[in-house]
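Running log. JK asked me to keep both predictions on one page so they can be read side by side. First protein, sequence followed by its tokens:
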Amino acid sequence: RRASDQATHQHQQRKGTSKGAMQRGVGMRSAASAPCVRAAGGSLSSSGTNTNTHIHGRRRCVGGARRRSAAPTGMIGFPLGGRGSTVAARVALGGEKKGGKEGGTEGNIAVDNAASDAFTVVTVDVLDKPGLLTVLSSSFHDMNLLVDKVESRGPGGGIMFWVTDDKGQKIVDAEDAENMKQYLSIVLHKLVTGASTKARPFALRMFDEREDLSETTEKNRDLLYSLLDSYLKNDVLSVQQSIVHHVEFTLARSRYKFDNREAFFAAAHSLRDRLIERWNDTQAWIRYKDPKRVYYLSMEFLMGRTFLNALHNLGVVVPYKEALNGLGYELEKVQQAERDAALGNGGLGRLASCFLDSMATLNLPAWGYGIRYEYGMFRQVVSDGFQKEQPDYWLTFGYPWEIERPHVAYPVKFYGHVSVHEEGNEGRQNFVWNAGEEVTAVAYDNPIPGFKTPSTINLRLWAAKPCQEFNLEAFNTGDYVSSIIDKQKAETITSVLYPDDKTFEGKELRLKQQHFMVSATLQDIVRRYKEQHDSFDAFPEKVAMQLNDTHPTLGIPELMRILMDENHLGWTKSWEITTKVFSFTNHTVLPEALEQWPVSLVEKLLPRHMQIIYDINWRFLKELQTSYGIEGDRLGRMSIILETEYGKMVRMAYLALVASHTVNGVAAIHSNLIKETIFKDFFDIFPEKFQNKTNGVTQ
């Protein structure tokens, strides 16, 4: 009964102490004035020892009931970031502070009864970080101590607390003071060692050097950095915590019951967290350095399964395998739940993916651009001895690696007509494309990690969305089909990889896909360039675009249109820029496999682009005649526009050859063959353009 009464009395005293502290506190932050956070709570421990038992069971309670026991002496070391961190320190239980604050310093918990007549001044001499003040204040309350005032001595100066016991008296007993320091040391040990052992670079500090920032903005940036100042830890326990966190909060499943598929999605999101922090730091560094960036344009990316590839590249296969085993799952079975990203078909798409992996591993500032096909490559089934194609619903259960960017969206135009307007006193002609149809391209980003390097680049895929999602007026009149027709037409563009082009509609859809991808991509590239540059003078020194086969070749007239019609550059300047930024990879040696489009189709779907292609061809043929003396049949063989008995055709490979500064095959023997066969006429005149690039290497 006596023990129960004493516990009740202490509880009432604690409530009164907290209230009094808030009433009398001078200059204290509101979050620190009440025990809203239990820093110990029986869970903070050193070497697995329960804190409440460790402090209150075998030692004398500071400010509460006394239980005699010898207090330990010595030091408890704790890293504030460890190897690679911006700070490395430890707390000394008493004793002198040794060294400075930068790299390898020691903090000091000091108890001073001489500094004040009414209070014991406790100085925790460690680097301040978000949440530290709240945790320490709550720790004093947990020890039945009243905090009257708190003072921060600025960056690197530590924090001073003016405290008394529950009776308003100073802490004069030496054993009480030692126990208090021991308790605070364990709290700090738990708080600080929860961080990663590797510090993240302060990316925005780079830009602070270029900007005149206010004091408030600088403090805000310091705070935002300190909240996530280190990389996520990759030890088994941290990985398990991350996986279970995603089971609970991302998948909204019970952490006590989830199957292999849910284990995969949770583990994938856990791994994606680690990719994103590296992706953000990579992009921030590239933006700061502003190097020449390479953009790889491809209609296909045969990525395969990302989970195991990312585990190997980040070097975390073993901790993830052990983490899953500890939770009762096998990595081999869990990873089987991942669906292949059906974004490619064979060699062309695999080459693109290999190059992305290689560029990330080589720390090159690169981006990949393609289409986010909803169904992608077909799923093969065999029925009655015949192969049948079925849609591959690879996005049925979601794709954990992609990051939707609804704010990164661009209009893409089709059809319509071109009008000409004269501007200025010089009568300069300005061409305006009045589109007949418009859709929106929305970005989906996929991080691509390098092997054993923090560099993580980006694959940006475009999905087609309608400009008007739903026609309410048509719906209300009972025309339900028309109410969603725009949505269906738009989303058809990115529904299927390589729609059948046996029909005119199939051909039109394929050409739509190509223009959709390059238009959104070029707008994104130009937007990124203009964020850091006021003119296009440096564009060739900052941008390189690689065309993977002829599918992205429409990017050439699209860039010309953007430069001339939207940014009002002249033809000569625009063409000079265009021919310096494009390179072309050819994938075939068969003349019949070279891509061609009917002029009538291009004129209908992309009227402004057909005008530009005609101009490019006319100027190119003039150059062949005047500079190289080429006439007759050979001039016709090299023309971008081919005249056949079925009508005129646009030879996309020739357009890419004319506008690109380099052309390559995908192997040494292939690169030599194209010089001797399909591109011989061009090689004879422009031998310096031709080179070889062997396939990228990846696992």
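And the second, directly underneath as requested:
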Amino acid sequence: TVSETHTFKPRTYPVRRARVMGLASCFRPRDMSDDTPTKKRKTGSTLEANRGIFTADENAMIDKLLGCGQGHLFSSWPAPGTDDDDKRRFLAQAAVCDAGYPGGIAQYVANAKKLLQDSKEGVNPFDGWTPAVPDGIVVEYASKEHVELESEGMREVGSAAFVLVAGGLGERLGYSGIKVELPCERSTDSCYLQLYIQSILALQQRSAGEMPAHRSAKDVGIPLAIMTSDDTHAKTLDLLERNDYFGAKKEQVTLVKQEKVPCLTNNDAHLALKDTDPYALQTKPHGHGDVHALLHTSGLLDRWTAAGKKWVVFFQDTNSLVFRVVPGALGVSKQKGFVFNSLCVPRKAKEAIGAITELTHTDGRKMTVNVEYNQLDPLLRATINKDGDVNNDKGVSPFPGNINQLIVSLEEYKTQLAKTGGQIEEFVNPKYKDASKTAFKSPTRLECMMQDYPKSLDASACVGFTVFDNWVGYSPVKNSPADGVGKFKGGNPTHTATSGEMEFYGCAAKVLELAGAEMAAPVDFAANDIVVPSGPKVVLHPSFACTFEELKGKAGKGVKVTSASSALIVEGAGVKIESLELDGALVIKACPGAFVTVKGLKVSNKGWRFEKCGADAPEIDRLRGFVIEKDETEELVFDQPGAYAVP
């Protein structure tokens, strides 16, 4: 039995030839049989003198490195008796890198040489490919179609497993912790991981027992796998254990840790040593595409299949709105038979976000994949539209924006990964010192992206997309306050903690409004030198409602929030608000089994103030640029099961 919190590492797979896709970034592993046998390679008497202090495995690791042209790594090694422990430490690190990459370090170097050569020569990765708008659905939230899709998705969600990609620290945000520990809003201080797990538990509670197909949701639960990294693994585990897994069963949550890959110093794919340590390889993350290999090698896909799961839903670490659209998108996957469904948002032409595109090659091959925005426009100009990426009559590009929230069909996914070992097409992005492209400004590495999985699929695979508006499905927090100012001045979304919090409140308020509630109009709110709309601060706990239809049956007509400064927090599946007039702050919390009907309630108090904070404020507040002063709050807490009427 595998411990749920142990780290899984990709196993080494035999070298496989990748199916040629016609893209320069799609590697074909080089045949290593032409290499000179490693035992015949010589790098100097000092290294040979050291051989006697190493084990057979350590010497084999040296041979592997010499065999792929890495003799420079040993050029400064002293004689035996000096730094021997450091030499062993180096070989141990190299062995980890070797085991963590399909085909080992030799294959990594071979792939790197090919990709670096293509980069130097300026190979066009889209030569021979013609773009078109792929199959997909644009869903208007709260429409009749959306309600039907949500209903379809809720019949499937008990058969889903979720995967959170959480390998990053919050450094880019100006946050010293892991991103999933960052509060998504300060009204309740729920962190992202708490929000996600409670959303999964709410879906689980509603799906379990509805029909025989959902037996797995009741007996096994809806599982969550979290991909971590060296930087985040221990902190993620600690966050879960300190908070009793936020209500989930421990066995429901599995952490899988990705390893880093070696950095490269030149076009010959020489591995880089750390500047401060000649016995340590410089390594960097390989990219979130590693999640596919980790799921394959961990055995999770087999376990999920045995538990009756049919879908795998991937989501990112700081998008607080994603679970608003998961049921509807899952309904699209079921209805359209998609084996791979990209959740998307409308994108303006030339907007800096990747676009889902169908590509057809001159030889007849087809694939539906993400194309980066800076590649899409020239591709369109060179093929089907001399004007490039332009808006349609609805004011958006016909190519939807990819947000890296993905839904795959487990059966086909598992079969495909068994063929590939979870390998995802790689790319390299060296920063050259000059136009000769012979030297790098700093070491580079190979990378892979989770959304490139469809490049490995056959042309017959049913791949598509689902588009929801940004307000309801996409509000990432990925920029620091300083970077947000630059985005704001350029007229672009800031994607900061400031905007993320206000958009979280705004989404819940708009959903209530669509359900029939009267909500005060937003006003401009300035913090950290950006201005964002700020309406009523509404937090609807995941336990309250999972779908629009469910929410509409619990709140809507009869709810009136008269001021933009008001705050409304609702938690509990048993809460129903028939009529409420609010000017101030109201918190309603009902435990499981408590059924609360609010009818004819009027609340008027001093409420909460969102006040700017200075540079001396705690880190979490500085990220937002404000603090919440809770002057007066009406709290209705029902901590015992039963039926209650308010007032």
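Observation for JK regarding the second prediction: The first strand starts at residue 129 and ends at 132.
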